[in-house]
Write a structure and sequence with these properties.
Length: 167
C-alpha cells in the first residue's frame, strides 16, 4: 500500500479506485434506484405510485381543489375514513347508556319516594293512634309539624338526587 500526503496532490478518484470504494454520487444513485424499484413493485391503485409518474396537465390556482372552478380530487385517490363507522357506533352506545342511566335514576327516585311516603303514612298512623288514645291537641300539632318536616326533608333529598343526576 502506497502512502500519499497532501503534497502529492493525488486526485480523489484515483484514491477511491485504489481503495475500491465508490463516491458519494454513486451511493446516492444506488439509493435512488432502490427507491424507484420499490415504487415500481407497489400495487397500481396506490396513490404514491401515481404521484411518481404524475405530470401536470394545466396550471392550478393556490389552495385546495373545490368550488373555485378547479377539478375536485378524483374518487379513486380519496381514502375512506376507517374510524367513521366506529365513531358512529360509539356515539350511539353513549347515547343509549345515558338514556338508560336517566331511566334507572328516575325509577330509583320513584321507589325512594314511595318508600318515604309509606314510612310517613306509618308515622301518621302511629301519631293518630296516639292522638286517639291521648286526645291531646298538642299531639295533633306535633303530627302536623313532623309531617311538614318530613316533607321538607323528602323534597330536599329529591332535589339533591336530581342535581346529582344532572351532573
Amino acid at each position: 500500500m502506497i502512502i500519499y500526503t497532501r503534497l502529492d496532490k493525488i486526485n480523489s478518484e484515483i484514491i477511491r479506485k485504489e481503495l475500491e470504494i465508490s463516491g458519494n454520487q454513486d451511493v446516492r444513485a444506488k439509493y435512488k434506484q432502490k427507491w424507484i424499484n420499490h415504487f415500481e413493485s407497489m400495487d397500481n391503485p396506490r396513490l404514491q405510485k401515481h404521484t411518481l409518474n404524475y405530470e401536470h396537465t394545466e396550471r392550478r390556482d393556490r389552495g385546495p381543489p373545490g368550488n373555485d372552478g378547479n377539478a375536485p380530487i378524483p374518487q379513486e385517490f380519496k381514502r375512506p375514513n376507517p374510524w367513521r363507522k366506529m365513531m358512529i357506533i360509539v356515539m350511539v352506545v353513549v347515547v343509549v347508556m345515558v338514556v338508560l342511566m336517566v331511566v334507572v335514576m328516575v325509577v330509583v327516585m320513584v321507589v325512594v319516594v314511595m318508600i318515604v311516603m309509606m314510612i310517613m303514612m306509618m308515622v301518621v298512623v302511629v301519631i293518630m293512634v296516639v292522638v286517639m288514645v291521648v286526645k291531646v291537641v298538642v299531639v295533633v300539632v306535633v303530627m302536623v309539624v313532623v309531617m311538614m318536616v318530613m316533607m321538607v326533608v323528602v323534597m330536599m333529598v329529591m332535589m339533591v338526587v336530581v342535581m346529582v343526576v344532572m351532573m
